Structure formats: structure tokens, C-alpha cells
Amino acid sequence: MVIVNQADPRPLISELPRKLAARLGYNQRNPPDNIIGNAITESISMVGERFKPRGLYKTMEVKSVDGNGIRVEQGTIKSPLLARLAGRCGGEKSIAFSIATAGEEWREGFSPGASSWMDLLIDALGSELAELAADLVQDRYQADAQSRGLQVSARMSPGYCDWGLEGQELIFKALDARKIGVSLTPHFIMIPAKTVSGAAVLAQNIAFKSPCALCSKDCPHRRI
Amino acid sequence: MNEPESLLERLKRSVMELDSQALRETMEALITAGVPEQDLRRTLFQELERQRRRMMSDEVPLPRFLICLDLIHDGLDMISPLKEGEAGEGMRLVIGVVEGDPHDLGKNIISKVYAASGYNVRDLGREVLLDSFLKALEDHHARVLALSAMMSTTMSQMPEIIRRVKERFPSVIVMVGGAPLNADLARTFGADGFADSAITLLEETEAAMERAGAGEKW
């Protein structure tokens, strides 16, 4: 199991204003007005160096793949779609399980409950920070895989696509999340709230990087 | 210039321009001028409705709508709330997020939209136990229960909550909402209505009440 930290978060947050605006429904053609734009800038400057992204990952051998899922030592990833993706990979396959969190420190200075708008902004900001933490961890296992001549699929999380939220149990069985201060409730909700877990397939040849390529559903989470 | 009519226009403009200071000052001026609270309340409700409809047609993005919602709440806080039995008192409603679910951002917005649209809201917060819903429905003499769940695992409690609510309060209208839900699931769960956002909330609630009033199945 590899633990990932980033002492200086500044390089990670350079793209945050654009990403946060996009999460709030804005884009280049429809940019935020001054009120919203200033609030976005101010909220990011408030986070500053309080953002302490951290995470962990572990790669493990795939025991078998069938129509229902991917079996690893701790159990089965019950996602037929991810199994289809893994089934089309060439050579030996492994799975990278990961958990990454934005932590709680970044919230200091914000007053939740003060207004609906601020609550939305804080929530969206936290979600973006969690994604940055998840990308940080993903970059590390991707670099590790590449150094071994392996390709990596897109990350998939329990609760999305055809992988039920119950899949969290398997990830938390594989990784000791306490090492980064993350826990799981009986309803499979991760604490701190702004935490991302996931699994990605590692193989010598990956025909389809994203499970979306094997799915025809028109869904809001579609990545291609 | 400071006639009540022009002050009411200024109040509307302060909401549209998201000017909280102007809203507070105008509300104070209107109260001092002796404008009946019901007129102030009606103006604020109408402005929220106008902004909600603009959001419906993509003219107003969600963040601006929420700032407007917060402003209207600030305005309503400056006048006395309607008392039980008073003419114009809104439909009584209980709202909460089901047990085990800590996600209350969506519920808080929905709760505020209901309140700012004239409903008499009792907000139970998040991670609410079934017995707390039942007690609040009784104590508040509620006509509507709005249930929220943001995870598939917590959503699974909804059928049992709805069954128990209907058993004890058959005339209560149950509305449900939350990320993992859709209208088909809501029907399967025994709910009377489903709203996917603050945009459709009021129409969907009214439609559910009309169906119930006419004895129609959803």
C-alpha cells in the first residue's frame, strides 16, 4: 500500500477557478458574473495552504473476470461493465484500488449554514478539491504502472455506473483508510465527505480506457 | 419617491440586482411606512417565483437563484411569521433527510424554496429517524412530507418510511427527492410525487396534491 501526500498544494490548484466555475454551471461562453466570480476567487484564496490532499493506493492481481465482475483476493468488484473492460485487456491484469481525500482542514474559515449560495459554493469547492486529491493519487499509480510497461484505465467509483455503493466495502477491505483519516459508515458513506474512492484496471494493453466506451447510456457522468 | 408603490418596486429591484443592503433598507422603509406585512410577503413570494421561472428557462443560473433565495429569506425574517390559523398561512409541511444520510445541501435549498413560496415549513434537518418524522407530522399538523436521500443505500429506507406515514396519516402527501431517485422509483416506493430540483418542486407538489384531491393514482 502506497501513501501519497502533497505538502505544497499550490501547483494543484492553478486550474481550480475554471473547474469550480464549470461545476457551478458556467463555461467560457457563459462566464460567471462579478458577484459569482469574486466569490469563487475569494473561496479559493481562503483555502490556500489549508488544503492537505492525501491518499493511498494498492495494486492487486486479478484472479478472474466473468460477466458479473472482477475477482481479486479480497472479493469481487461487482461491475459487469468494468469486467467487460478488463475482459478486453491483453496480458496479465491487475487492479489499483485508491482512496483520496481533501480532508477537513480546508473548511476552516468557512461558515456552513450561513446561506444557500455559500453552502453550494463550499460543497462544490470541496468536491473539486477531492477530485484534485484523487487525481494526485491516480498520477502516482499511473506513473508506477507506466514504469512497469502497463497501461491504466479510467478510474471508476462505487455508486457510479453499474457498480453499487456497497463496493466501498471491498475497497476499504483492501486499503487501511485509517492511515489517511478516512472511515466508512454502515451506509457506505465516506467520512470526511469530500473523499473519492475508486478502482482502475492495469494491463499491458487496454483496448478501452473508459467503461463509457462499452456503454450506450446517455448519462450525466459520461466521460466520452 | 418614497410612496409605498415605488418602495415596493425598489424592493423588487433589490432582489433582481441581488443587493442585500438595498433590500434591508427598503424593507425597513416599507415597514415604517405602514405597508401591511401581507403585501410585503406577497411581493417577496412573487419575486422568488419570477426568479424561479427565469431559472426554469435558463435565464438565471443556480448560484444567482440561490443568492436571490437567501435575500428573500432575509426579507421575510424582517416581518413576523404567519401564525397558525391566520389567514394566508401556508400549507404545513415537514421536511428532512432520512436516517444515516448526512447530505443536506439539496434538502436545505428545497426547504428554503418551500418556505419562501409560502409553505409553513418544519425542517427536521438530516439523518432523521422515522419516529421523528411521525412525531413532527403530528405536532405540526402537516399536510405534506418531503423526504430526501442522496445515496442509494439510504434511499432504500424510503418505502418503509412512506408505508408507516401513510398508515398513520393517510391524507399526508409524500414528496421525495435526491440524486439516486427518479419518478418511477418514487412511484414504486409509494410516494405521491417526485421533484428532481428546486425548479420543478412547486409544480410537482401542487400536481401531487391535485391528484390526491381528485383521488387519482399517480
Number of domains of chain B: 2
User: What portion of the residues of chain A fall into strands of 2 or more residues?
Assistant: 15-25%
Give the C-level CATH assignment of the domain at 2-7 and 55-112 and 129-214 in chain A: Alpha Beta
Sketch the major β-sheet of chain A. 5 strands, antiparallel
Relevant terms:
A: 224 residues, alpha+beta, NADH Oxidase, five-stranded antiparallel sheet, 31% helix, B: 218 residues, alpha/beta, Methyltransferase, Methionine Synthase (B12-binding Domains), Chain A, domain 1, Rossmann fold, 2 domains, five-stranded parallel sheet, 5 strands
Write up what this structure looks like.
The complex is a heterodimer of chains A (224) and B (218). Chain A has helices at residues 16-23, 34-47, 80-87, 116-147, 168-174; strands at 2-5, 54-61, 64-65, 70-72, 75-77, 90-101, 151-152, 183-184, 190-191, 195-205. Chain A is α+β, with helices and mostly antiparallel strands and 224 residues long. Chain A has a domain at 2-7 and 55-112 and 129-214: NADH Oxidase. The longest helix of chain A has 32 residues, at 116-147. Chain B is of the alpha/beta class and 218 residues long. Chain B has two domains: 4-77, Orthogonal Bundle (Methyltransferase, Methionine Synthase (B12-binding Domains), Chain A, domain 1), CATH 1.10.1240; 92-213, Cobalamin-binding domain (Rossmann fold). Chain B has helices at 4-16, 20-32, 37-56, 62-77, 105-116, 130-139, 152-155, 158-168, 183-189, 201-213, and strands spanning 92-97, 120-123, 144-148, 173-177, 193-194. Chain B has a five-stranded parallel β-sheet with strand order 2-1-3-4-5, with helices on both faces. Chain B is globular and about 55 Å long. Classes of the chains: A alpha+beta (224), B alpha/beta (218). At the A-B interface, helix 4 of A face helix 4, helix 5 and helix 7 of B.
